[in-house]
Amino acid sequence: MTTVKMHLPAVVPNEGARLLAAWMVAQPVGTYRRFVQRVGGVIMADRLIAGEVRPGLDLAFSIYAFTSSAVMIASWGRPAKGWWFDIAPETGKLAA
Asked: What is the pLDDT of residues 38-48, one digit of tens each?
């Protein structure tokens, strides 16, 4: 089993990156490898998760489909609704 480490900035850059990082840590082993293949490489995958880049429409749709709609297309253009991995107190789920 390979351990994958996420290198996240102190400030969450956008809602899409926050949701993608939270979704990724909840997935089984092997999901990151499939995500890397979907987005075109390790560097792009890491930059998307860290919020260093915003995906274009085609890639945003691909991420939306890959995450089973956990990361909405429009979320990449919105400010983050919380810090990395925040839980909404009213629902007990990831703040979204």
From this structure: 999 999 999 99
List the one residue out of 46, 32, 40, 70 whose CA is nearest residue 58: 40
Instruction: Point out the least confidently predicted range of 2-6, 10-14, 45-49.
Output: 2-6
Q: Are 38 and 62 in contact (CB under 8 A)?
A: yes
> Where does residue 3 fall: left (phi above 0), alpha (psi -120 to 50 degrees), or beta otherwise?
beta
Placement of tokens 């890639």 in the chain? 59
pTM of the model: 0.85
**Tokens, residue 42:** 């390790």
Where do we find the tokens 């990082």?
Answer: 21
